Amino acid sequence: MTDLALDSSYWSSLGDGVGAILLYAIVGLVLMVIGFYGIDLTTPGKLRTLVVEGRPNAIVVTAAGMISMAFIVVLAIFAAAGKLVEGLIAALVFGLVGIIAQIISVRVLEKAIGIDIGAVLHADQFAIEALIVAAAHFALGLVVAFAIL
Prior knowledge:
Blueprint: H1 10-42, H2 47-52, H3 56-79, H4 84-113, H5 117-122, H6 129-148
């Protein structure tokens, strides 16, 4: 006969997992918002407005920044090996360091290559330079994320 009863710790374990998901989601959201405003503060014009207006280059650069932040948060969670408090702290600290590293590095790269990021973000048409900036965000997110391990 098959036993259909749940283990006595099932609901507690399920609740712990749901709680961890919610806490990591909050930390991830906070980091992404901070990252967005960090990018916004260091670029000419209001990035939020440019995204709402549908400027393709602003959208591409913003999306790459969000994806790179997700890499950092995901690997901080993975590196915590199931230790919730340590994972949350690591995600927050590494995320903030990652934001700073990305902003500085991407701005340096833009200057080194000679990209006028203000003009690129404000353009109505897609500009190939947006891919360079997006790739820089993506690559730096991977570097920071793997440095966590």
